[in-house]
Known about the structure:
Layout lengths: L2 H41 L15 H11 L10 H17 L9 E4 L2 E4 L8 H22 L3 H32 L4 H8 L5 H4 L1 H14 L11 H4 L9 H26 L15 H27 L7 H30 L1
Antiparallel strand pairs: 1-2
Helix pairs in contact: 1-2, 1-10, 1-11, 2-10, 3-4, 3-10, 4-5, 5-8, 5-12, 6-10, 8-10, 8-12, 10-11
GO molecular function: NADH dehydrogenase activity; oxidoreductase activity, acting on NAD(P)H, quinone or similar compound as acceptor; quinone binding
Keywords: Cell membrane, Membrane, NAD, Oxidoreductase, Quinone, Translocase, Transmembrane, Transmembrane helix, Ubiquinone
Main location: membrane
Amino acid sequence: MTLLALDWFLLIEKLILIAIVITASLVIAMYATYAERKVAAVMQDRIGPNRAGPFGLLQPLADGLKLFFKEEIIPDSSNRFLFILGPCLAMLTAMMTCAVVPWGSSVEIAGRTIQLQIADINIGILYVFGVVSLGVYGIMIGGWASNNKFSLMAALRGASQVISYELAMGISLIALLMLTGSLSIKTIVEQQVGHVWNIVYQPVGFLIFFVCAMAECNRAPFDLPEAESELNMGYHQEYSSMKLGFYLFSEYINMFISSAIMASLYFGGYDVPFLGHAHLAPNLLAIIGVVAFLVKIFIFIFVFMWIRWTLPRFRYDQLMNLGWKALIPLALANMLVTAVVILLRG
């Protein structure tokens, strides 16, 4: 078989994998809205959505169709191009982060070994940080282009929040990188397969990363850019129809991908404890690994929702104090302690 034919096969494999990952991300984000409403209903002693389809399972489809067919309103005083670009950029950056997540080990089909990862790059974590940093432009552009003072104030809040908490998140990851010696997410997962997960070595780093991930996703109690009580609806106040849907969907996709990153870095990714000794077919092991990975992700998503409906929203000064005066010093201390332990052990 020629090299050109092999390249075509690889391209087709990657395109199929991209289509599967994007579809799965959208479906999971769509039904995360349903799960959110059900979790809130249980915590508030209500029933939740139960009219559209059995047990209300068609409610996300009904909500999506409603957003698609609602009238699209663009304010006359807004910057039309940037007004449209904002939600598109938020959605694009949310989807781009899934490219470096290893969803499973590998499967063999027709004699070919297919990696269950779109792109295994040796700087995967830097790629995630770079794309997440671009995501804040979706909020900033949307808030500024709306030509609404409340939207602009909310967008400034969102930018300040993301910049502040990215520092603590990055420092917390430096300690993990010192232990693993790699920026590749695939390599970090493979180091944990059949061994102790990184959460054992880096519990403080994981806690910092988890708190920062909530702030990066604008999830309560860190949803200051969407503070309805003081800024009406926040940075997407002037949006309607599917542009508003893009902003809302990107939040749930970010929550899904953040959960996948945390499961990969600290909880072994697709690793299933004690399964390595089982004599199972490689493809079956890969499928079990994918299912286990999704279970870990769904547990994190549930915790995100649980916290949202349990804790009240912070004040803005409390948000900044937590980021700069608590999380960053704690992340620095964790990094230094990790460095000392590695030095003494080596």
